[in-house]
């Protein structure tokens, strides 16, 4: 084995030690979007039938807007993701479309959905003292998606903590998102033309009035006001639209975040950007929220989307380029300059990259520890399919998936002319620190949903 591979493997073998430190982490709060994901598996022939039934045209797939205004749009969205092997989430405002999905899309299983819900479940398994989640709606069906852990709480209307898996607000509606997954290599026919899915991926069709308006419980706000947090992981802004009053809604939430920051300066606030279709909202998130938080997490697609807003000319020049690490790092720098967020972390296939201010309170080694541990957990989730028990976290380690593929990191270190980045994963990039970690690749992942949320939250909370 090459020397650098051995060095990284040694680092990966420290995962159990890293896990043992997590019981010392106090309160991790995950807000705002929690929902239920109904996972549907679609075969190519089933999709062909739907395309025919709705007389779908290839031109509609190429040119239409990313929105669900009719049932036909649901089929159009699935086809778009299928043909291109991409992941997208489109929103709908019409209960009739949701009803059609309920009747016509057979789901295989229900699981926790929404960044906040997914992160809270994970934080509980990590063994932090208190994982607290915001839920806009908490009927029994939602409670059932929470793991049955005593350190996992939701907040009731009186600002009291209750075990999330047993809380039941009987009058609340279940907020169900349809996750329509397809396998790589499946074939479908649209307008007489054959297509093969180039990658396994998913289309998410969302009808969720509460999260689409970013409804927040007063009890939750009061709890955070009074008790603070060690880590506050925020997301859910991506579900807003300008038409729905999303800009005004963000305007109402900004003072809350400012207030929390002021009262709990030692707490770390992280924003998970998530895929935001509405460009007005994307701009408002980048201009109003990103500058308020300590840390920002995003994948390469979300980074490109951010650049579309921040640097339109640069975006036009680069939007069709291969999204490899050196270009992504350049893009991260641009986002960081614009938002001034002290820490930015990118998760992409094969590599995680963090850029942070030299005086950031989580140091570079701690960051590297956290990013390595996140790669172990992400590989376990991908390979084992779920993370429900502490031993699941280390599944990949036990399966000897611990030798990373160094190709991306190598290219980056060559491009930046920083050999130390390849061996240490730590270097100086202008006035910032850069930390880059090669990830563990699972050849046949069982799941991809929630991977970004997993990587960002684990690498932050376990950066100790
Ligand atoms: C989005 C979707 C949600 C899904 C999550 C996964 O928030 O709305 O359904 O669980 O992404 O990251």
Please give a structural write-up.
This protein has 464 residues and is an alpha/beta fold. It folds into two domains: 2-37 and 112-173 and 211-461, Ribokinase (UDP-N-acetylmuramoyl-L-alanine:D-glutamate ligase, 3-Layer(aba) Sandwich); 38-111 and 174-210, Adenosine kinase, small domain. The protein has helices spanning 3-12, 15-21, 44-53, 58-63, 71-84, 95-104, 115-126, 140-143, 209-212, 218-227, 246-263, 279-289, 300-310, 312-318, 325-339, 364-384, 390-393, 395-398, 407-415, 419-424, 451-461, and strands at 27-32, 35-41, 88-91, 109-113, 130-133, 152-155, 161-163, 176-182, 187-190, 193-196, 201-206, 231-235, 268-272, 295-299, 343-348, 351-357, 426-429, 432-438. The chain has an eleven-stranded mixed β-sheet with strand order 7-6-5-1-12-13-14-15-16-18-17, with helices on both faces. A five-stranded mixed β-sheet has the order 3-11-8-2-4. Helix 7 (115-126) crosses helix 21. It is globular and about 55 Å long. It starts with a helix and ends with a helix. The mean pLDDT is 95. The structure holds alpha-D-glucopyranose. The site of alpha-D-glucopyranose has 13 residues, from strand 2 and strand 11.
